[in-house]
Amino acid sequence: MKFRIWVFDDEKMIRDMIGEFLREFGYEVFCFQSPAEIAENLNVANSKFQADIVITDIQMPEMDGIEFVKRLTECGFSKENIAMISGYWTEEYREFADKVGVRCFDKPFGFKEVLEWVKERRCEA
Question: Quick one: which of 21, 23, 60 has its CA closest to 38?
Answer without folding.
Answer: 60
